Amino acid sequence: MAIKAKAEGEGEDLYVAGIDEAGRGPVLGGMVYGIAWCKRSFEKNLKSRGFADSKQLTPEKRKELMNFMEENRGEAGVDYASDSMCARSIGGRMLDSTRSSLNEIALEQTCRILEEMLVKLGERCAEGQEATALIDTVYVDTLGKADLHRDRLSSKFPGLQFVVESKADATYPVVSAASIVAKVQRDEELEALASSAVGSGYPGDERTKTWLCSQVDRVFGFKSPLVRFSWSTCKEVLEKSGAVEVTWDCDEEEEDGAQQKLWSSYAPARKRTAQGGGVGKRASKHAAAESSGVGRQSFFRSRKLQKIDAF
Predict the structure, then answer these.
(1) pLDDT (0 to 100) of residue 250
(2) Which residues contact 116 (CB under 8 A, 6 or more apart)?
(3) Are residues 13 and 137 located together in one domain of the fold?
(4) Rounded to an integer, what distance in angstroms lies between the CA atom of residue 285 and that of residue 257?
(5) For residue 52, what is the DSSP state?
(6) Were 121 and a residue from 68, 131, 254, 289 both cysteine, which residue would form a disulfide, CB within 3.0 to 4.6 Å?
(7) Angle of helix 232-240 relative to helix 206-214, nearest 10 degrees?
(8) Same domain as 256, residue 133
(9) Mean pLDDT on 208-235
């Protein structure tokens, strides 16, 4: 029914929407997904104002375009929403016993902002009309394989038509708008919690690595809530910083679609020695000799936990 309603509507009066993210790759800060939507007749205004891939714009230009969206927010202009997941939540989800991949987390965020858009558009629907009937197309910057991502979204939102493409933020102005929403919000969140000393936040940035080293806690991993402790960069930093070795149950490392490695996760079937904060490492030759465990609680015996007198 929703598809039929869209076909009968006038194209210029239907909405187009765009989705993009900011902060998928960095080792610092959260990941933000943004969505923007407007009537197709208004989209030309986005293009004429210079909306483009947020990564290609200066911070000043992004703020200018964000102000334009705020000033023109509403039914006659452009509207937007966002969903942010902090660094610790990302790390926790990726290292949990029922761990999630970064792609799964990103899909959940995408679904949440789509649902928020539909709720807002639902307020503009005529009685008995579905919100999806107001939307022509949703353009999405690709996540992994474009066809697979499109099929996942279509299965969750069968009333919507999705176009999933690489570099969609440079092709469709409404995706550029979503890209700016996500980028501006992430930058503001990062600036509120960190100084310029953190660098870009990307694993290859030497300033970022230097800052990470300054935040090491030899027992708990990292002091700052900005750190995504599930990133392989963190493992390397902890190993070089002499973090305290801890022995616990965990399973093998697994590589994420963005080539970020998970370096610990609970799984009672295997054992491995780890550095403080969860970094995998072989057992130390100085580890205490194993005791018989006689007289100790079953919790400690079953896990072969040992008493030690020095780190």
Answers:
(1) 53
(2) 35, 81, 83
(3) yes
(4) 35
(5) -
(6) 131
(7) 60
(8) no
(9) 91
Whether residue 239 sits in one domain with residue 156:
no
Residue 274: pLDDT band (50, 70, 90) is very low
- Establish if 307 belongs to a structural domain: no
Are residues 278 and 264 in contact, defined by beta-carbon separation less than 8 angstroms? yes
CA-based radius of gyration for the chain: 24
CA dihedral 28, 31, 37, 43 (to 10 degrees): 40
Which of these three, 193, 217, 237, is where a domain ends?
193
For residue 216, being part of any structural domain is answered with: yes
* Domain range enclosing 102: 2-193
From 133, 164, 193, the end of a domain falls on 193
**221 lies in the same domain as 182:** no
Tokens 């960095």 sit on residue: 26
* 141 in a labelled binding site: yes
| DSSP H/E element including 63 | helix 59-71
Please, are residues 78 and 72 in contact by the beta-carbon 8 Å criterion?
A: yes
Determine the Cα–Cα distance for residues 278 and 280; give it in Å rounded to an integer.
6
Does 251 appear as a known binding residue? no
**Total domains in the fold of the chain:** 2
205 marked among binding-site residues = no
How do 135-141 and 162-165 pair as beta strands? parallel
pLDDT in tens, 151-200: 999 999 999 999 999 999 999 999 999 999 999 999 999 888 877 788 88
- Is the separation of the CB atoms in 59 and 94 below 8 Å? no
pLDDT in tens, 92-132: 999 888 889 999 999 999 999 999 999 999 998 888 889 99
